[in-house]
Design a protein that fits this description.
The protein is mainly α. It has one domain. Strand 1 and strand 2 form a beta hairpin. The longest helix is centred in the middle third of the chain and has 31 residues. It is globular, with a radius of gyration of 18 Å. The two termini are 19 Å apart.
C-alpha cells in the first residue's frame, strides 16, 4: 500500500506557507491575516492620507498611536513569556512546552512540535534584528514548511 496523497491538505499547507513567509500571518507574534495586511499596507495608506487629505490625517494620528501602543505592549508580553520558557512554546497557540518532551503533540491545540524547530523559529522572531538576506529568508521558509508538516502530523 502506498502513502495516501491528500491534495487539499497540500494546497492548504502551501497557502499557509506563503502567508507565513510573506509575514502576513505569524502565530509567534500574534499577527493575524488582517493585522498582517494592515502592517504591510497601512503605512502606504497613512502616507497617502497625509499627502492628499491633511485634515483626515489629523484624525488618524491618535487612533494610530493607540493601536501601535497596544500592538507593542502585546508583543512585549509575548516576548517575556517566550524568554521565560527558553523559546520553547507551541508555534501555533503559544502554549508553554517547558516540561514536555522534545518531540510530541501540543496538549492545547493538538499540533505536533519539535523542540529545536520551535526554539529556532522563536529565536528568529525575537532576535532583535531582521536579516534580509536571501539565505535567511530561505532558511525560515524551510523551517516553516517543517513546522506545518509537524503540526499536521500531530493533529492526525
Amino acid at each position: 500500500m502506498g502513502v495516501r496523497y491528500d491534495s487539499g491538505m497540500e494546497s492548504r499547507r502551501k497557502q499557509e506557507l506563503r502567508a507565513l513567509v510573506l509575514k502576513r500571518i505569524d502565530p509567534r507574534t500574534n499577527t493575524g491575516i488582517v493585522s498582517g495586511m494592515l502592517l504591510s499596507w497601512g503605512w502606504w495608506v497613512y502616507f497617502m492620507a497625509m499627502v492628499f487629505m491633511p485634515t483626515i490625517f489629523l484624525f488618524l494620528i491618535i487612533p494610530t498611536l493607540v493601536v501601535c501602543l497596544i500592538y507593542i505592549k502585546r508583543r512585549v508580553l509575548i516576548q517575556k513569556r517566550v524568554e521565560q520558557c527558553d523559546h520553547f512554546l507551541c508555534l501555533w497557540c503559544r502554549y508553554p512546552l517547558c516540561d514536555l518532551p522534545d518531540d510530541g503533540v501540543c496538549p492545547e491545540c493538538g499540533g505536533g512540535y519539535r523542540k529545536e524547530l520551535c526554539r529556532t523559529l522563536y529565536q528568529y522572531a525575537y532576535a532583535g534584528f531582521s536579516p534580509g538576506t536571501k539565505v535567511m529568508q530561505q532558511r525560515e521558509k524551510w523551517l516553516w514548511a517543517r513546522a506545518l508538516r509537524e503540526r499536521d502530523r500531530g493533529s492526525r
